[in-house]
Amino acid sequence: MNDPLDLTEKTLSREEKYTGKFLSVHVDQVELPNGHTSFREVVEHVDGVAIVPLDDRNNVLAVTQYRYVFGKTLLEIPAGKLDGGEDPVTGALRELKEETGAVPDTLLPMGKILPAPGCYGETLYLFLARGLHIGEQQPDADEFLRLERIPFDEMVHRIMNGEIDDAKTVAAVLKAKILLDL
């Protein structure tokens, strides 16, 4: 039996189930720390970025878009996947411009989050954008969004009362709140 303090699981086998444009699914058989075996269903997803863009009036440039998986529209901060090997800062600037038309004077990194580490292999890099210069949105061909300006304090309130439940938006806005209140 392994050292009880070592929580590492050892991959014994892998079965690829699906490979798409930006995600793949596999099922792994693993050896647990106690020597028994189990299975792990894993979705590998490309990494992404999420940005809290604040204008000069302390409004968040947010987007509302239909999320097919949940069958409803969600209010979210601008976000998107990184292109192969793309630096998170470059990706954040690109996604911000595409979804809102904004180009910031300042892009402050706020760390990263693991959205669902139990089964989902993705890292999201979070940013706060200030000093915005607004141009035209340039969404992807399959992306339909409505740009909204929401007062920052209202975003925080709507998160805290459960109106906004998108994980990246919750994490990034609350991180920004703490940074801005320092």
List the helices and strands and how they pair.
Layout (H helix, E strand, L loop, with lengths): L9 E10 L3 E9 L5 E9 L2 E6 L5 E9 L4 E5 L2 E3 L6 H13 L1 E12 L6 E2 L2 E11 L10 E7 H9 L6 H15 L1
Parallel strand pairs: 3-9, 4-10
Antiparallel strand pairs: 1-2, 2-3, 4-7, 5-6, 5-11, 8-10
Helix pairs in contact: 2-3
Describe the protein.
The chain is α+β, with helices and mostly antiparallel strands and 182 residues long. It has 2 domains: 10-45, no CATH class; 48-181, Nucleoside Triphosphate Pyrophosphohydrolase (Alpha-Beta Complex). 20% of the residues lie in helices and 46% in strands. It contains 3 helices and 11 strands, in the order E-E-E-E-E-E-E-H-E-E-E-E-H-H. The chain has helices spanning 88-100, 152-160, 167-181, and strands at 10-19, 23-31, 37-45, 48-53, 59-67, 72-76, 79-81, 102-113, 120-121, 124-134, 145-151. It has a 4-stranded mixed β-sheet, with no helix packed on it. Strands 7-4-10-8 form a 4-stranded mixed β-sheet, sandwiched between helices. Helix 2 (152-160) packs across helix 3. The radius of gyration is 19 Å and the shape is elongated. The chain starts with 9 loop residues before the first strand and ends with a helix.
